[in-house]
Amino acid sequence: MSGNIKTFKRLGECNRCGQCCKILPRWKDLPDIVKALFRMYDPNAEIVLSKVTYGVCYFLRRESDKIYTCSLYGNPERPKFCFNFPNEPSQIEKIPQCGYQFKEE
Ligand code: SF4
Ligand code: SF4
Prior knowledge:
By secondary structure, the chain is of the alpha+beta class. It has a domain at 23-84. The chain is built from three helices and four strands, in the order βααββαβ. The protein has helices at 32-41, 44-49, 80-84; strands at residues 8-12, 60-62, 68-70, 100-104. Strands 1-4 form a two-stranded antiparallel ribbon. Strands 2-3 form a two-stranded antiparallel sheet. It starts with 7 loop residues before the first strand and ends with a strand. The model has no long low-confidence stretch (mean pLDDT 95). Bound molecules: iron/sulfur cluster (2 copies). One iron/sulfur cluster binds at residues 21, 24, 48, 57, 59-60, 70, 72, 78-79, 82.
C-alpha cells in the first residue's frame, strides 16, 4: 500500500460460471461520458452492449448447468472489459460465484 491508495493483487482463476456476462448494462442506458470513454478505449464494447437483453450478453453460451462459454473468446471483437475482468474488488462484490479474489498488498 502506498499512502492512502490501496492496491490489490488478483488471485484465482475463471471457473466459467458466466455470472459476469449476466449483469451487463444496456448501451443505451449508459451515461454519455461512459459511451465516449468506451468509444475511445474499447470500441467493441458498443457492439456487445448494444445486444444486451435483461443484462445477459448475446454472445454467452451455456454448456452445462454451471459452465458457460463466450462465443467471442479469442476473437478480436471481444471487448477489452471482458478480457480484463475483474480488475478491482468492487466488480465482484455481488458475484460470490466468481473464481477470482483480491488480496490487499
Ligand atoms: S463478450 Fe463474452 S466475455 Fe464479454 S460479456 Fe459477452 S459472453 Fe461475456
Ligand atoms: S464471474 Fe468470474 S469466474 Fe465467473 S465467468 Fe466471470 S470472471 Fe469467470
